[in-house]
Amino acid sequence: NAGVTQTPKFRVLKTGQSMTLLCAQDMNHEYMYWYRQDPGMGLRLIHYSVGEGTTAKGEVPDGYNVSRLKKQNFLLGLESAAPSQTSVYFCASSYSTGQAKAFFGQGTRLTVV
Amino acid sequence: GESVGLHLPTLSVQEGDNSIINCAYSNSASDYFIWYKQESGKGPQFIIDIRSNMDKRQGQRVTVLLNKTVKHLSLQIAATQPGDSAVYFCAENIRDTGRRALTFGSGTRLQVQP
Prior knowledge:
Structural class of chain B: mainly beta
Shape of chain A: globular
Number of strands of chain A: 11
Mean pLDDT of chain B: 88
Shape of chain B: globular
Number of helices of chain B: 0
Largest interface: A-B, 27 and 30 residues
Number of helices of chain A: 0
Distance between the termini of chain A: 36 Å
Oligomer: heterodimer
Order of helices and strands of chain A: EEEEEEEEEEE
Helix content of chain A: under 10%
Helix content of chain B: under 10%
Radius of gyration of chain B: 14 Å
Low-confidence stretches of chain A: none
Mean pLDDT of chain A: 93
Order of helices and strands of chain B: EEEEEEEEEE
């Protein structure tokens, strides 16, 4: 049982470049989330999805876009990377609303230079 | 306790002692809480959860206490082991918001001394 899988695990981008982070879950969860974690801080919600074909903004959505074309996948896109987007990105999924424990992936460490 | 910025509060305990990690929340509409453990280089891992209609819940070696009067949550770890060394986050679900996701605190680092 793989759970939540994120790819890639590490990436270095130049300012202005674009990239897509992929999250896949095999637990048939309805809800999926993207968080970012900065040094010494908790996780901040970027975007989330309550089901296939739906997305919604979280606390810090600017500079990111997401898509949920398939139930098992949730993609996070950076159209024009900025140094302020250097962070560790975590994907998570859960059965239902926020009132359910979320399972997290191992994270993607992104550096924008 | 909670902290903002680069300096996580750190709790240092001796192996075998009990640990108590605290979390304050500010929103009285929060109705569900989770404690997560995050080891270095890994994603957060679920430890235990509690709903707002409860004030205590026990798991294996862990207990979560909820005091809604003072908006305080604590995680108690019995007989702390070196493998318990990690950063611990509390997370809450805020009922009144349209956003259906957990809100995380900034974490507490637990260091277990052998």
